[in-house]
Structures are given as C-alpha cells and as structure tokens.
Specification:
Layout: H1 3-23, E1 42-46, E2 62-64, E3 70-74, E4 80-84, E5 95-97, E6 102-104, E7 111-112, E8 118-120, E9 129-135, E10 138-142
Antiparallel strand pairs: 1-10, 2-3, 3-4, 4-9, 5-6, 6-7, 7-8, 9-10
The structure holds FE2/S2 (inorganic) cluster (FES).
C-alpha cells in the first residue's frame, strides 16, 4: 500500500466513522425536554438516620434519593423541598447552596430557585418539584 492508497483508505474510514456516529441520532437527540423529571416518585427520608445528617449540616444542606432522581434540601427557614436532581439541560446532578437558597448545576452553571424555576443558565425548563410532607422526623416525598 502506497501513501496515496493509505490516505484514501483513512479518509474513507473517518467519513464512515462520522456517518455511523450520526446514524444513531445526530440532530434528533435535541428535544425540548431532554431530561424530564422522574414520575412515580414515592419514598421516605428518616431525618434521624445517619444518611440524613447532611440535611442538618449548613455546609451541605441536601441529600439525594437512593436513585439520585431527586434532591432533598433543607432551607434556612427549616423547611424541606424536593426537586428533580438531573439538570434538564444535559442531566448533570444539581447541588444546593443552603445560604443562597439556590440549586446549581456544576456543568454549565444553570441556577434554580427553591421552586425549581430557572434563574439563569441554559436549562430549557424548571426542575420538577415534588411534594414533601413532614410527619415528625419523617419526610414523605411524592410526585
Ligand atoms: S447540564 Fe446543567 S446547565 Fe448544562
């Protein structure tokens, strides 16, 4: 194989590689809601459990559900909120800044308020909000 044949072969290979990568959905993977919030959410949080300790730590103030679909946060007012954890933009888990009462996506810096409303950044929509009912030291989260 001479140099010309090699370059022709390589050029064809690169073209075929790009073409095959796009057959799986180039252009079609961008929908208006690429990362919807989970539905059928139903779980409880025992506020006395060791796994809930970050909720009462001002440095964190949040935990994720076992499946990381939901972020549960404690506000400075002492109430709890539960929102969709995967950012609607590309799915990176948001985190909570208790002092500012904001949810932040570390990927492209989308910022959401306590209700999940987009304050800034590229998120195409708000974070889905879930219902939180506190009974004693237990939180029941549904939605
Ligand atoms: S993935 Fe969250 S802002 Fe892009």
């Amino acid at each position: 194989m001479n140099r010309k044949e090699f370059l022709q072969l390589f050029g064809l290979g690169a073209t075929a590689l790009v073409a095959s990568a796009c057959l799986g959905g180039c252009g079609s993977s961008k929908s208006s809601d690429p990362v919807p919030g989970a539905s059928g959410v139903d779980f409880t949080v025992d506020l006395t459990a060791a796994t809930s300790a970050p909720l009462n730590n001002a440095a964190t103030g949040y935990i994720y559900s076992p499946t990381r679909d939901v972020i549960v946060a404690k506000t400075t007012a002492g109430t709890y909120v539960a929102l969709q954890a995967p950012c609607p933009h590309e799915g990176t888990s948001v985190y909570f800044t208790q002092g500012q009462g904001r949810f932040v996506c570390p990927n492209h810096n989308a910022i959401f308020d306590l209700t999940g409303t987009v304050l800034s950044g590229p998120s195409p929509r708000a974070l889905k909000q879930y219902t939180v009912v506190q009974t004693g030291t237990s939180l029941h989260i549904t939605g």
